[in-house]
Amino acid sequence: MAKRILHVVTNVGSxxxxxxxxxxxxxxxxHAWHVFEQRGFEQQIVSPKGGTSPLEPRSLKRPTxxxxxxxxxxDPARMALLAETAKPDETDPTRFDAxxxxxxxxxxxxxxDSEGLQxxxxxxxNNGGIVSAVCHGYCALLNTTLDDGSYLITGRKLTxxxxxxxxxxxxxxxxxxxVEEEARKRGALYEKALLPFVPHTVIDDRLVTxxxxxxxxxxxxxxxxxLDAR
Length: 230
Fold this sequence. Notes:
Elements: E1 4-8, H1 26-38, E2 42-46, H2 67-73, H3 76-83, E3 98-101, H4 107-110, H5 115-126, E4 130-134, E5 157-158, H6 163-169, H7 179-185, E6 189-190, E7 201-204, E8 207-210, H8 216-228
Parallel strand pairs: 1-2, 1-3, 3-4, 4-8, 5-6
Antiparallel strand pairs: 7-8
Helix pairs in contact: 1-8
């Protein structure tokens, strides 16, 4: 039976300052989708509210707006997947072997407090599945708890978009919080690459995380290899 991946995308299209647009970082989805598609995995997309996932304008520029992202954006059938995402309460977590949280700054607003996403993550984890995230996707893990009430990320090694990268990207004054700092507050053993904006993936048993957009392929391959080994 084919492995099944649940991708998670944002519904938020702007920062608190609505003159600054944000959304899904497209290549973080498309690179992972391509990896899983090559393995013959089944894939579905969910978002906190269901429906449309807007695209982060910066993700539509080089270097991350590459062949993969461009091909997706130019394919009406693929774009329809982002216009008609499922809601968490319409999604059965027992069907999935892994959950993969994409990034883009929009997720900072709607991922952390989504009880639906927390439920999906907890149940996939409880069922022996893989929890994975790339870039800002780890915002979804900040408030996700296990059955005993402890945070899923407490005492776990992980990575995600670094505060240094927020500063270098020029958005540190726009973002609502420092997610690296928030992860550390919850007891996560946060790691990052020596240099910013280079691929970096951290594997801690069934928790797989990537630091930035350039880490999407590497992170998805790590998830695929863990699933193939079962």
